[in-house]
Amino acid sequence: MDRASLQKLLRQGLSLAEIGKRFDLHESTVGYWARKHGLEAVNRAKHAAKGGLGREELEPLVAAGMSIAEIAEAVGRGKTTVRHWLKEYRLKTKHSERRREMASRATRLVLECSRHGLTEFQRRSTGGYRCLRCRSEAVSRRRRRVKKLLVEGAGGACQACGYNACIAALEFHHLVPAEKSFSLSHRGVARSIAKATLEARKCVLLCANCHAAVEAGVIRLIGQDPAHVQCRAVPDSLPG
Ligand SMILES: [Zn+2]
Ligand SMILES: [Zn+2]
Questions:
Q1: Which of 50, 142, 155, 220 has a Cα at 20 to 30 A from 206?
Q2: How far is the CA of 208 from the centre of ligand 1 (A)?
Q3: How many domains, in total, are found in the chain?
Q4: Last residue of a domain, one of 81, 102, 123
Q5: Residue 117 falls inside a structural domain
């Protein structure tokens, strides 16, 4: 209802019920619009007096898709009162119905996976469910694939001893620790390939043994450029 015509009718002294009849609307709907437009009804509706709310009063508002707060505003009563009477008449607002529906769609369910049998599934934000074990395997696969790319990009072998037998035993050592944005071990490779590649360029690729030796100071890395660094054993140091 537009403000101008509603205001005109209210100024003529028509009650909400009378205006409602003209527009084929319930008086509480008219009351809702009057409040929304900041207009005061000359003859406030009788139901403003405390007492029960009638089913015939609430039903059209629920049918119109109003929330409890909107209905409370329309009938000029508190939300608790409205909630009480809606429950009494078993009326449900669209909003509460939707919320109930959402809650009933559990985020986790036990379903049958073709690879893992009966197991937990997680609801996807895009709809449907996904096996949690399939998902974590996919994450591991991606991690291994990214690491393989990074290792290949760094020459594929330990820069100190040439070891290249097992990717899992090859590690990225930051040449300048201060330039380290994040570690490339574990979760680091879960980041975007572009970011991980940038980080790998700051690193020397070492096997786990040589990496330990570098950390212990038994092998010294000489040079500024990680790709062309020289690895020299410190003569009088003993691995310990
Ligand atoms: Zn699965
Ligand atoms: Zn090595």
A1: 142
A2: 33
A3: 2
A4: 102
A5: no
What whole-number distance in Å separates Cα of residue 90 and Cα of residue 126?
Answer: 33
- Cα 120 to ligand 1 centroid, rounded to whole Å: 9
128-184 pLDDT tens trace: 899 999 999 998 898 889 899 999 999 999 999 999 999 999 999 998 877 777 777
The predicted-structure confidence for 1-34, as pLDDT tens digits, reads as follows 888 888 888 877 777 888 888 888 888 888 888 8
The closest ligand to the CA of 171 turns out to be 2
- What is the C-alpha separation between 99 and 101, in angstroms, rounded? 5
For residues 176 and 58, what is the distance between their CA atoms, to the nearest angstrom?
71
Residue range of the domain that includes 163: 137-233
Closest ligand to the CA of 122: 1
> pLDDT digits over 183-195, tens only?
777 665 566 788 8
Ligand number with the minimum distance to the CA of 137: 1
Question: Per the domain annotation, does 25 fall within a domain?
Answer: yes
